[in-house]
Amino acid sequence: GPCRGGMGCGPARYLVFFQYFGTRYSGVMETKSDQALIGVQNYLEKAAEKLGASVPVRFHISSRTDSGVHALCNSAHLDIQRAPGKPHFTGQQLTHSLNCHLRPEPISILSAHRVASTFHARLQALSRTYIYRLLVGCAHPSQVPVFERDLCWAPAGGPLNIPAMQEAAQFLLGTHNFSTFRSLSNEKPLRSPVRTIFQVEIQPSPGFLSHHYEHRGLEFWEVKFRGKSFLYRQVRRMVGALVAVGQGKLAPHHIKELLEIKDALAFPPNTMAPPSGLFLKSVEY
Amino acid sequence: GPCRGGMGCGPARYLVFFQYFGTRYSGVMETKSDQALIGVQNYLEKAAEKLGASVPVRFHISSRTDSGVHALCNSAHLDIQRAPGKPHFTGQQLTHSLNCHLRPEPISILSAHRVASTFHARLQALSRTYIYRLLVGCAHPSQVPVFERDLCWAPAGGPLNIPAMQEAAQFLLGTHNFSTFRSLSNEKPLRSPVRTIFQVEIQPSPGFLSHHYEHRGLEFWEVKFRGKSFLYRQVRRMVGALVAVGQGKLAPHHIKELLEIKDALAFPPNTMAPPSGLFLKSVEY
Fold first, then answer.
1. I need a labelling partner for A135 at 20 to 30 A (CA). Which of A68, A123, B178, B278 fits?
2. Could you report the per-residue pLDDT of A200-211, keeping only the tens digit for each?
3. What domains, with CATH codes, occur in chain B?
4. What InterPro entries would the database entry show (chains A, B) (predicted)?
5. Residue B130's closest chain A neighbor by CA?
């Protein structure tokens, strides 16, 4: 074989962290490329094609996100097999090259790290942290600042009772059967509905340049969830239910009852939060 | 004439405040609509056409902004002559209708106020406040977070000496001949180059969700200018010169010398700040 001169001849595995503005994509996962919206993974792999690797590069994404959902930081692993005699990319070279080829898409590689060939981005993640941005104080969707469009949810119907939401959120902490908070999907075999949430927080958050328009009475809040992993649409359903509590449509103890029912069909209709406010903040290893 | 029943029969004048994401427009002012990028004013007047007024509605914009420049809040006055017998719009009705017709453009009416028929949005403005957003800590433009693209400037070349910039900014305060800081334009007759700056401030600023990625070493700064009015591209030239001070290419006292030269051609080449970081924050009456 052509392995010589101290050059590694097997593929090199990398862990990459990347971010994206999700509005333009069908989600993070690859889709058939003949669709109107395609996946972030399609763009990542198209950029990787231009690295000139000997074998097509596949991204193994750690954390699925839906159409319209954003990532401050998602992660994936990938293997790169270069032509014989060519040295492996450094993390910095790989970051820079992929970013050049990703332009002008709003997808960006944050960093790339050489890892062992046994490393698996999805299976080895210890936890995922999501934040959901709520905008309070809009009487109508047209009052969402133009700089915040597609980046938050402004639920209709006046102020939110934040202390009630905070009380309700405590019921979600810990290990539970989250069947009521999972959307049914026929794309995937049903996995266990038991999940563990390590952290839930509801805190005020700055909006984009909102210190310049405080007088408009708009308030941003962030709901943060950290857990090992989440079920399909679990975060958006949990946020939607908490907002229903904030609006007085549900009482805090109803969250506990919804958990105990363990039935996706018992989830109150039209209560799921839209994708625009959801951000995958980080994947922890 | 058809003036009866307590209905005002003359036109009603309104002062409107509006915001826009400037990247998609040729600037705020109206342009011929056959160009690739057209002006924010074109969209405002197209939305106003759908109000069914008897006379075409013209927006008299208070503050010009260039292509790529944003507004948290700009202002304009306009007259609306309704059909005989129809009552004047309230400010709220006008805001709501225009916003419906502006969708999906990233332009939004913030409020509308009935004013005297002698009111003039440009001539009666007491001052304008601009902010310019700088991103420090990017080794390469691809390190600008995807959520901040087109919304800041990340000058190349390492950290900025902020105290030196703050020292230099003090020379711009007060009344000066700003000829060196004006871009030449053959579109307008030359007006007096004397302008008064009431306030200059350079302060740290939050980035969009940047509290979630503090470890990346990115820092946002805002340069704020308040003045009665500004010359063509004056703010971008002042910011560019201050950044050159921050990079050590100019000393703070060079700002004073540039002012004293009173010659647009003496401005250091390739120093003007790009439009992406500039926001008209407010117009004061």
1. B278
2. 999 999 999 998
3. 12-115 (3.30.70.580), 127-284 (3.30.70.660)
4. PsdUridine_synth_cat_dom_sf, PsdUridine_synth_TruA, PsdUridine_synth_TruA_a/b_dom, PsdUridine_synth_TruA_C, TruA/RsuA/RluB/E/F_N
5. A212
User: For A96, which residue in chain B has the nearest alpha carbon?
Assistant: B142
Q: How far apart are CA B254 and CA A20, in angstroms?
A: 41
Classify each residue of B89-102 as buried b or exposed e, where b means 16 or more C-beta atoms within 10 Å of its C-beta.
bebeebbbbbbebb
| Type of residue numbered A148 | E
Q: Is A213 on the interface with B (CB under 8 A)?
A: yes
| A129: closest chain B residue by CA | B212
- Closest-CA distance, B239 to chain A, in angstroms, reads 19
- Cβ contacts of B47 on chain A, cutoff 8 Å: none
Q: Which amino acid appears at position B258 of this protein?
A: L
Tell me the C-alpha distance between B91 and B108, whole Å.
Answer: 14
Q: Is B66 a catalytic residue?
A: yes
Reading the block at residue A247, the tokens are 């609006």
DSSP state letter for B73:
E
pLDDT digits (tens, 9 = 90+) for A98-140: 999 999 999 999 999 999 999 999 999 999 999 999 999 998 8
Pairwise CA distance, residues A91 & A47, whole Å: 16
Active-site option among B34, B66, B79, B263: B66
Distance CA A106, CA A150 (A): 14
- B231 vs A154: CA distance, rounded Å: 38
Model pLDDT for residues B18-67, shown as the tens digit of each residue: 999 999 999 999 988 778 889 999 999 999 999 999 999 999 999 999 99
Q: CB count, 10 Å around CB of B175?
A: 12
CB atoms within 10 A of CB A260: 13
pLDDT in tens, B124-148: 999 999 999 999 999 888 999 999 9
Calculate what percentage of chain A has a pLDDT beyond 90: 84
> Nearest-CA distance from A146 to chain B in Å?
5
Is residue A237 classed as helix, strand or coil in its secondary structure? Answer: helix
Share of chain B above pLDDT 90, in %: 84
Peptide bond into A104 cis (omega under 30): yes
User: Which chain A residues are within 8 Å of B226, Cβ to Cβ?
Assistant: none
Strand partners of residue A113? A15
Hey, is the C-beta of B215 within 8 angstroms of any chain A C-beta?
Answer: no
**Which residues of A are catalytic, by number?**
66
**Cα–Cα distance for residue pair A144/A278, rounded to 1 Å:** 16
Helix crossing, B234-246 with B252-261: angle to 10°? 150
Please answer yes or no on whether A142 and B106 come within 8 Å at the CB atom.
Answer: no
| CA A33/CA A23 separation, integer angstroms | 17
**How far is A262 from A179, CA to CA, in rounded Å?**
5
